[in-house]
Amino acid sequence: MRQSTKILAALLLLGYLWTSAEGMAVMSVDLGNEFMKIAIVKPGVPMEIVLNKESRRKTPVVVAFRNNEREFGDQAMNTAVRYPANAFLYLKDLLGKKVDNPVVKHYQQRFPYHNIVPSDTGTVMFQIDEVHLRSPHSKPSFGNTKYSVEELLGMVLQEAKHLAEGFAEQPISDVVITVPPFFNQAERRAMNLAAEYAGLKLLQLMNDNSAVALNYGVFRRKEFNGTAQHYMFFDMGATSTIVTIVGYQLVKTKEGSYTETNPQVTVKGVGFDRDLGGLEFQLRFRDHLARLFNGQKKTSSDVFQDKRAMGKLFKEAGRVKNVLSANTDHFAQVESLLDDQDFKAKVTREELEEMSQDMLDRVAKPIEDALKVSQMTMGEIKEVILMGGGTRMPKVQELISKATGRQELGKSINTDEAAALGAVYQAAFLSKGYRVKKFLVKDANLYPIQVEFERQKEGEAVKTIKRTLFGRMNPYPQKKVMTFNKHTEDFNFRVNYGDLSYLDEVDVKNFDSLNLTKVTLKGVKAAHEKHSKDAESKGVKAHFRMDESGILTLDRVESVYEKAPPPEEESTLAKLGNTISNFFSGKSEEEGNVEDSKEKDDKGKENGGEKSTDSKDDTSEQDKKEKKQSDKAKEEEKEKKEEKTENKKDTKAQKEEVKNEKKEEKTDQKKDETPKEGKADKGEQKGNETTDKKDGDAAKNETAEEKKPPKPVTIKEEITPESEILDLLPPSEDAVKASIKVLEKLKQKDEDKIKLQQAHNALESFIFDAQDKLYQEPYEQASTEEERSMLREKLTAASDWLDESDVTNTIQEFKDQLKTLKDATYALYERVREHSERPKALEALKDMLNYTDMFYKGVKNLTESLDDQPYTEVEVTTLEKLINETKSWQKTNIKAQKDTPLTDKPVLLVEDIAVKIRALDREVKYLMNKAKTFVPKKPVKPKNETETPGNETKIETPNNETKSEEEGPAEGQADSTTPGTEEPVEQPPPPTEEENKNNEEKSELPESEETDKTGKEDKSSESKETDSKKDDEHIEL
Q1: How far apart are CA 663 and CA 674, in angstroms?
Q2: Per-residue pLDDT tens for 955-974?
């Protein structure tokens, strides 16, 4: 039964894996401002970077609209040069920003040809240029088509999903997307919305610096120990610079009752500059090239006024900037830059550094900020590791070395792909389909978040109270609970950013609002009126959570009350039941409370201290003594019953606990304070089991006096919060659904475009191929001139139709044209194929006939020489008949085919030849398999008993086989005599002369080698039955 259950479970697991393996792939997107890198993990592929349509490992983050179609990647970049108003790039900085934000204004200065309008929520929307195709130099005329930044980035993520699914060859929905660590709450929510538009299930928004640190640590996990090792990552990307200090060390974590030791990376400090990146270097270099062209006086036009020419210079500036990272000088050149005039000029690295000196002076600032917030010095940093394309500039590396005091900088990681690979490792860890080695990541919150609320005391003015919820550099994910002790009426509070004085004035202005949320709590007064009469208020508790993506949410709000313990007059059994009930209902607060454990006690005293004090004053000293004695007696009686119950039920649990403690003593030399406190509490609950015996009765009395009363019943009344988002209003549900529908329509349109292009290409390819084949010799021999003329006319007509086709033609029309041509050429193509493949097929039939004929002759000889033969007469006759019929069919049809013209339908078809070959092969395989499993019968000879030296008794069988009693029974034969004894054996009658003659003839018959090899096991099993039968017949015990 147990084995069958295991088999059933294995089959169910196999079925589950078979059905779910197709959807187990996960992906990551390192979404930069200039490029995105996509990585996947799927069964059989641990971590791999996805190649795009151009077989490149990184794809430009740009979406363009041309001819009412979307374009991505390199194709969109080409459109950005010719029609810059309809190509949208460097979008990520605009996420979660309102139109009047300084970042948006700076973007408009860099890309003035875009028309930006506000959305219903005040965020950025782009109006599409709809008449740009008339002339690249025409003034753009903007239409009614508008797309928000979230929708445009959703399109980019949709393309990333499409590339990943094509690379993985299966659908993918789970994704981890990287974002800069300086993204605030509004920006993170906007990125979450873009992923929703793309149809992706967002597992986590992971800070790109943390993803890089994770990728660096995963491949070096054996180098870390219990002592923290600190590294600095310097990342200069397209638009920003981020410096991160992280610490790697092994930490112990508890999973249930097990303690694990895993590596952990913790973010200790972050410094950043949102405007220091490669884009600013490229824009300045573009303007420098434009000034050089105007200085050459090749045309009277100003290159700065031509958007297309500036787009070409922008592209060339990026290329030359990258070349100057390895060379001191290079030529910049653009063909037909303006008014059909070419541009060529020599530029040097020194010129690039001089025009960017003010930017280079800002390189050291993020390093200083990261060291300051981490409260560390460079002496504690083990290595400085470079990231990002901007760090390839020699001058930047020189300034980093100077700021850090390090002569050598770490270049051991792939600056382009490290973040994508670290994020996809995290995606595999978060998904349910993979089991990866744990590498814990503790990220840090860069902006402090606080809660503000008003409180008024009697006779005093209203006072605004501020409490920090998540401080600067607090790790996350994390949950916290804030308790409002003094509120018994409905009230509201606000969640805002805290003190941001450590940021520059420009960075603070980038926040559209420092206020995050306003929360109104209704129902507090009603809950208080409902429970205040028979219960004590413990305040209103708000449960906050900052998830793995760094997004703050309010999970729930509840008003908590505690009832007094049950009356003491109850029976001991009822009291015991209430105690157990209170134990489960009076659960402690979730971890992460804003207050420390000490603060909880203090606030609890403030909230209910007066009431408890009044009740104590009303009680006399004598009543107190009697109550203590009564409580002591009842507690002793309760302990006795609990000890009996525990002795019966917890014996096994105690044994397991002892084993676990022994294991923990071996692995953990030092225990934390939390387990010690837990053991102490456990000892108090069991009635002072840990008290030293030397203390005697005095210690027992002291314990009884200090013993806590039964826990009160906790009542939690859910309060429904009404939240109002203040920093960035999210779109309505209808607006979100509408945006998703728009992107789905665009996606379907792209798919239809691909299918239409495939149908067009298939028809065009068939026409060219057919026209060429009609002039080839095999097709001329297999067709008449009249037939070829008819086919050429049809192909010419289809070619003319194809040339006149446009975007209005449907996919079905192309398919119908292709089907018509295939039907017309089918007969000719089949004749040519038959003529070309027939000689090979006839040669294969000839070889099969020769092989079958030889096999038949061997079978015939074997059946004539053996009495016990493996084949029946019918089987041999059937094979002979099949061979003769096939030879006759072959001869007849070859002659008929020779008499048939090549232009007529063939008489001898390749498929008919294949049928004959399969029939011969099937019959031969059947006979061969039968010979392999054939076991010839053993001849039977009479047994004779003879005496041998050494007092051994041997039994002679009719086959002259002997058996020694000391040797024991033969393999597979039962022992029929007792060793060391001789038993009378009944002798069989002597064989007749005719039997002897037959036995001799049978013993001389040859056995085939194949039968001996394949039938060993069958012979041995048959010999067991034969020998045992012999013993039963001829041996009497």
Answers
A1: 18
A2: 444 444 444 444 444 444 44
Integer Cα distance of 872 and 876 in angstroms: 7
Which pLDDT belongs to residue 711?
Answer: 76
Interacting residues of 769 by C-beta distance below 8 A, sequence separation 6+ = none
According to DSSP, the residues that pair with 29 across neighbouring strands are 38, 177
Give residue 865's pLDDT: 66
The tokens for 823 are 């039907």
Cis peptide before 566 (omega within 30 of 0): no
Mean pLDDT of the chain, nearest integer: 79
Q: Do the Cβ atoms of 994 and 921 come closer than 8 Å?
A: no
> Which value, in Å, is the radius of gyration of the alpha carbons in the chain?
44
pLDDT classification of 982: cutoffs 50, 70, 90: very low
Whole-number Å distance between alpha carbons of 635 and 643: 12
All residues at 6 or more sequence positions from 712 whose CB lies less than 8 Å from its CB, including other chains: 536, 562, 563, 564, 565, 582, 586
Judged by average pLDDT, the poorest of 5-9, 54-58, 510-514 is 5-9
Give the domains, in start order, of the chain with CATH numbers.
Answer: 21-276+363-441 (3.30.420.40), 278-345 (3.90.640.10), 738-934 (no CATH), 944-1034 (no CATH)
What's the order of all strands across the beta sheet hosting 69-72?
Answer: 69-72, 62-66, 87-89
| Residue 547, CA distances (Å) to 188, 464, 555, 805, 901 in order | 12, 28, 11, 55, 80
Q: In 21-146, which ranges are continuous DSSP H helix?
A: 73-82, 102-110
Confidence of residue 850 (pLDDT cuts 50, 70, 90): very high
Distance (Å, rounded) from C-alpha 39 to C-alpha 41? 7
State the pLDDT at residue 819. Answer: 95
Q: How far apart are the first and last CA of the chain?
A: 42
What pLDDT digit, counting tens, does each position of 852-875 carry?
999 988 888 876 766 667 888 888
Q: How confident is the model at residue 844 (pLDDT cuts 50, 70, 90)?
A: very high
Give me the count of residues in the chain.
Answer: 1037
Per-residue model confidence (pLDDT) at position 246: 96
Q: Each residue of 149-158: pLDDT tens digit?
A: 999 999 999 9
Tens of pLDDT, residues 349-366: 999 999 999 999 999 999
As a whole number of angstroms, the distance between CA 245 and CA 404 comes to 12
Strand partners, 262: 251
d(CA 787, CA 828): 9
The rounded distance, in Å, linking the Cα atoms of 290 and 301 is 12
Of the candidates 708, 672, 714, the one whose C-alpha atom is nearest the C-alpha of residue 688 is: 708
**For 314, what's the count of Cα atoms within 13 Å in the CB-facing half-sphere?**
20
**Using an 8 Å Cβ cutoff, are 274 and 246 in contact?**
no
Question: 1003: pLDDT confidence band, cut at 50, 70 and 90?
Answer: very low
| 231 phi/psi in degrees, rounded to 5 | -130, 155
Q: Residue 563 is inside which H or E element, if any?
A: strand 552-563
**Which segments of 805-944 does DSSP mark as H helices, in order?**
811-865, 873-898, 910-933
d(CA 939, CA 959): 7
The pair of structure tokens assigned to 941 is 């000879």
Residue type, 793: E
Q: Which helix (H) or strand (E) holds 429?
A: helix 418-430
What's the CA gap between 317 and 311, in Å, rounded? 10
The residues near 150 (Cβ < 8 Å, ≥ 6 apart) are 95, 123, 190, 193, 194, 197, 739
